[in-house]
Amino acid sequence: MATYDADMSEAASGDMPLRVNNCSIERALAIVGEKWSFLVLREAFRGVRRFADMQAATGAPRQVLSARLTRLVDEGLLRKVPYREPGQRRRDEYRLTQMGLDLYPTMVALMRWGDRYLADREGPAVLLTHRGCGAPLEQHFRCADGHEVAGPREVTPHPGPGLRPPAVARAGSAGG
């Protein structure tokens, strides 16, 4: 992962590799890192389950939507559930799995970022409130001991147990 500035973390002083072979961010983006996947997930979180409704809500071309739904099912974020309207053929609707549901805080964080920097002058298009009391939704970033974390300058990355740094090229090997 890249560093933010020279005094921010151990990564800046060289204690963390700048590139790892098994970065979780890179793996997640390989699955959901493009517009149509996020829009499909946005609609799934809103309760949209059927292909035609998903297409109407996202504006995705039919082939693109079909490919994104297939990928999200294959990766385990959505699951197909068959249904049949009276007199119609069997079809599938798409429901979030636990893996998909766990993306909700990420989706809200992305939405909040967009609301802050990209919303129209009048304000955001959608406001999120708690269904139970109607209060506006807030997100908080805390450590395991309950301290509020204001941003990346308060975080220190450390090598995790699964870290696999890239192989270092040997002296005298081809290409160098």
| Approximate helicity band | 25-40%
**Total strand segments:** 2
Percentage beta strand: 5-15%
Cα Rg:
21 Å
For the termini, the CA-CA separation is 24 Å
- Spatially, the strands of the biggest sheet line up as 1-2
Query: What is the global morphology?
Result: globular
Number of helical elements: 6
Query: Main beta sheet: strand number and arrangement?
Result: 2 strands, antiparallel
Which consecutive residue ranges, at least 5 long each, have pLDDT under 50?
Answer: 1-13
Helix/strand structural class: mainly alpha
* SSE order, one letter for each helix or strand: HHHHEEHH
Mean pLDDT, as a whole number? Answer: 87
Characteristic key phrases:
single chain, 176 residues, mainly alpha, 2 strands, 8% strand, globular
